[in-house]
Specification:
The protein has 418 residues and is α+β, with helices and mostly antiparallel strands. It has twelve helices and 20 strands. Helices cover 35% and strands 24% of the residues. Strand 15 (268-273), helix 8 and strand 16 form a beta-alpha-beta unit. Bound molecules: guanosine-5'-diphosphate (GDP) and manganese (II) ion.
Length: 418
């Protein structure tokens, strides 16, 4: 899922008409001081990382003056929360909190729901999982009918909200649903939804996660890769993603694992797995013989030959790799001949450019016999450095890893001699 930082999500709250405290994001203590000055009121300084529980971890601090805000920022910036380094803080006007509520939506994929579930609770601030069920009002939303103001009013009333706050509270929850739909979210949460001493309702926090499949509909998000991708994408990553973005048939996942500077030291192989589990097995086998993967690639879900071809070409474009390894450690039910065709076309283009460059291919499963024939015929002229294996070795990671190592060593020798 494409996740948003609190301050980014709050921009979408603003657009949806959900009140948020006045605030600015800051990347240094000086910027935090300046932001606090502009806000001109006591502030709260909040770590911006893609993790909850920042309050408990010391990532949320109150500050009465701009100097205090600077000090809080210097303490929070660089901090690690759930393994993530804090690079930015949100400096926000402090709210005089009377009560903390919770409002949120998630997609429940269970057979009997299969749609958004709206939740509201008067026990906000804490983890919603630890709130007793009778303190949470839930509504399984029929997306055709949508949510009406009377629905959210009912939810508020059922949780004991009344008086002047009832209508503003119910209105915010309704707007939250509208924002959830408009932005194609899988999760959108306000925790805490704050009622202030002076009777106003504010979203004091925001957790926003958008459906990867819908990212293409939202160029305004500026998301470069429409799938969970927890690092800044490299050029290789972006090229790999472009195959997904332009062709939905089957999956091709590719991520750079080592930079060209790292691979220059040697010991790296262009890596191509089929299916997540099989790919893990293959990486283990490589690591056991002292080799590393330059990239992580996975072509599965019955990709087309053209998608496999593009992936192989991209893997082969990496500088410094000392071999190519297709780790098909599974009896895949996808038609493997698409893999065979894509591999043959790409390797016939690439191998003549790299004398002696070794290749180990393990490909098993549906249409295996035909696939093996395609590979063996298509790559016959490179027989001295291309080894092709079938189901006979599907459980034999140690043997296959050993073959990769042997061929890589032979390749090093021929290169050294040349
Ligand atoms: P989380 O712990 O990562 O979910 O971060 P939150 O943004 O939810 O903040 C945690 C807690 O800090 C909230 O539940 C509040 O109790 C407190 N907090 C956040 N903003 C304010 C504020 O403006 N004023 C006050 N008094 N407390 C705040
Ligand atoms: Mn929170």
């Amino acid at each position: 899922m494409a996740k948003f930082l609190e301050y980014q999500g709050k921009e979408y709250f603003k657009k949806a008409g959900i009140p948020v405290p006045e605030g600015e994001v800051a990347g240094s203590p000086d910027e935090a001081v300046a932001a606090a000055k502009r806000i001109g009121k006591p502030v709260v300084v909040k770590a911006q990382v893609l993790a909850g529980g920042r309050g408990k971890a010391g990532g949320v601090k109150l500050a009465s003056t701009p100097e205090e805000a600077g000090k809080a920022a210097s303490e929070i910036l660089g901090m690690k929360i759930k393994g993530l380094t804090v690079k930015q803080v949100l400096v926000e006007e402090q709210l005089p909190i009377k009560q903390e509520f919770y409002a949120g939506l998630i997609i429940n994929s269970a057979q009997e729901v299969r749609g958004p579930v709206l939740m509201f609770s008067p026990e906000g601030g804490m983890d919603i999982e630890s709130v007793p069920a009778d303190k949470i009002a839930t509504l399984n939303v029929d997306v055709i009918k949508g949510v009406m103001l009377h629905d959210t009013l009912d939810m508020c009333v059922s949780m004991g909200v009344d008086g002047a706050v009832l209508r503003p509270m119910a209105t915010v929850i309704l707007k939250l649903y509208n924002a959830f739909r408009k932005n194609d979210c899988r999760a959108l949460e306000i925790n805490p939804l704050v009622l202030t001493e002076d009777g106003n309702v504010y979203a004091a926090d925001c957790r926003m996660e958008v459906d990867d499949q819908a990212v293409f509909r939202h160029p305004e998000f500026g998301i470069k890769i429409g799938r969970e991708f927890l690092k800044e994408p490299t050029e290789l990553d972006l090229m790999g993603w472009s195959y997904e973005a332009s062709d939905f048939r089957g999956t091709s996942y590719i991520a750079e694992m080592a930079s060209p500077e790292e691979t220059a030291a040697g010991g790296y192989v262009g890596y191509h797995g089929i299916g997540g589990g099989a790919a893990m097995l293959g990486m283990d086998a490589l690591n056991k013989v002292g080799l590393k993967v330059a990239d992580y690639a996975d072509t599965s879900g019955n990709p087309t030959a053209s998608k496999v071809y593009r992936t192989v070409k991209l893997i082969m474009s990496q500088p410094n790799i000392e071999g190519y390894f297709l780790a098909g450690f599974m009896m895949a039910n996808q038609e493997q001949w698409h893999h065979a065709h894509g591999l043959v076309k790409a390797l016939r283009e690439e191998l003549p450019k790299r004398p002696g460059f070794p290749v180990v291919l393990l490909l098993c499963g549906n249409k295996e016999k035909e696939s093996q024939e395609i590979l063996k015929k298509g790559l016959a002229e490179f027989k001295d450095r291309v080894e092709i294996y079938d189901r006979e070795h599907v459980y034999d990671a140690k043997f296959i890893g050993g073959r990769v190592k042997a061929l890589v060593e032979k390749y090093r020798k021929t290169k050294a001699a040349a």
